[in-house]
Amino acid sequence: MTKGSNVALPALSEDVGTVIVSLGWVSPTGEGDADVSVLLLDANGKVRSDGDFYFYNNPVAPDGSVQLLGKTPTEDGNEDRICFDLTAVPPQVERIVVAASRYGGARFGELENVRVRLADAAGESLLRFAIADVDAVSAIIFGELYRRGEEWKFRAVGQGYDSGLAGLATDFGVDIEDDAAEVEAEAASEAEAEAASAVEAVEAVDPVSGDGQSETVAPATTAATLEAVPAPRRPDVAEGEPAKRTAAARPRTAKKKVTLPSAPPKSLAENDSWKPARLFPVSALKSDRDREMRATSVLLSVMTQVPRFGRRLTAAFGAPSGRMETFTEVSLPHGDTPRRPDGVIRIERAGKLWTALVETKTNGNALKADQVQAYMDIAARRGYEAVITVSNDVALEGSPLVDVKIDRRRKHKVAIWHLSWAEVAHQAQLLIQHEGVGNAARTWLLQELLHYLQHENSGCHGFQSMGSAWVPVRNGISDETLCQGDPRALEVVENWERLIRQVCLRLGGDLGLKVLPAQRARRGADPGARRIQQADQLCHEGRLQAELRVEQAPGLLTIGADLRTGKLRTSVEIPAPEQGYPLTWAKRLVRRLAEAPADLHVETLVEGATGGPRGTLERLRPEPADLLPKGATRITGFRLSLFKGMGSTRGNAESGFIRSVDDAVHRFYTSVVVHLDRPAPRRAAAKETVGAG
Questions:
Q1: Which has the closest alpha carbon to 393: 429, 430, 373, 368?
Q2: Which H/E stretch holds residue 75?
Q3: Rounded CA gap, 219 and 201, in Å?
Q4: What is the pTM of this model?
Q5: Tens digit of pLDDT for each residue in 231-272?
Q6: What is the CA angle 421-399-536, rounded to 5?
Q7: Which contiguous run of DSSP H or E holds residue 514?
């Protein structure tokens, strides 16, 4: 599309009751990012209330009409997706504005390939709009959905704002508050209050003890844990009614400070051998079939009983919000032999049904192409919308896990989607520890689901093996016999990418922050060609490397595996401050790292040279001045690195490569990165300079 053009959605697809809008951009440095926002406008072009403003502090509409789904890695960067259930949009809303903004003084001119894409409920891309001339703006209206009679249309807008998210929201009638310092102060106060409450709960006195003496008792583990889970913010209004504007309800564009919940109180068990009673036992699972049936039933049942969790998983597949029912072991006719998919999901909205077949695999079992193909054919004949596969494997961009043939001649389209068990656990962990579901019983159900998925006998552990090529490739690199073009090297590179995506999920779930693989590929780059190039580099250099973008981190977190030396290196580069003296920078850095491991390597990055002074933190603590280069060489930043032995086996055991990478990333972030200053807002870059955002 071109700027200012519009198109009617029914003219593009028959399945536009639910649409997914994806906003994308590419950072040349891999660090730049932006945040999406949505505004629902009435006939006057204004929000009905502040509740019609959806962004990172208010991501989901109570009626399910809007849901910010978060970021998804693509071959040339990331896409931030938003799901719109157009059948649920209140009739008073005539326009839906889709925008994005940058934070802390950054500008869109520092990013490339800024674009918006719209897809129907089956995931079929319907339109694309590339936005140019974004040099000096910090917020952009990408496009808008608007009503014309009984149908919805999309208009390509591409309008920029110099005043950021706050200015954009204010123009549409939102009464916002943009005080980041106040938000952090309130978060700190809340954390102190929670800590005090926990202490009071643990030190509560039981007035009716057996010996007549007061004694300190710990409350029941489940109850105390549930009380510590933060409840989500919910508007105190009836569905469909605009919220009353009050000073306390003003949306804040300052990002929330996420704090992990305090440790639960001590259990009442007499000793560690006592095991808490569980809703979903795993001890009776003896075969793969038992594990698949139990895992499917557990997952689908919790999705119906915890609507926010079920909606979180299905919205990404274009499903509407509505009453959900799930079924297992359903028999469906298919030729002479009926087929029995592992599960079925049905969602009812306004008298219409959205249906998906579910096929699950546990342990290392792979999805079968003929089985999935049969389910695709059944879904097409019966008018179902999707087939969802769930397994421990991780899908790669541009490389489907299962090759299926889609008959384009059929009028009804069926989408195929994949979920990793690691992603299911990630979404449950986010809701339990960081977002809440607003109900103690639902929180407990999610906790039981997460415990089940993480149990060693469930078979739902996510990506667990580097594949059969791992040992031959590692040995070939060690004895220098591995040649470029060897297909085994490509297999290792693909599995390395799967592992990194899973590491991002686990770290993001622990922190409650966005963690994504950083992509530096150029616009239009073929992901398959990129992996072939990485495989050739592996053969030549013997190293695997990836970069992670962690929200609020001062720089990209790099993880590298040197197969020649058997070492893992985790590192982060932090830029030098814009003001002050080099000695002050060095002293401050060492002070910030007071609790970091003594074997942390610190290296000074200097302009126009391969490297500056370096040393371990243990040696630099008494003499920070040793980090300063000789002469007038300008310091551009510092690199912090930790080294760790690499697991040798291909699996996820204690001595395995997968576990060692996961542990290395987690240890580096929790022991090093958390002590560093957050990235300071950058000044607006000059036109001839390309910043890093």
A1: 368
A2: none
A3: 7
A4: 0.74
A5: 333 344 444 444 444 444 566 665 554 444 455 567 777 887
A6: 110
A7: none
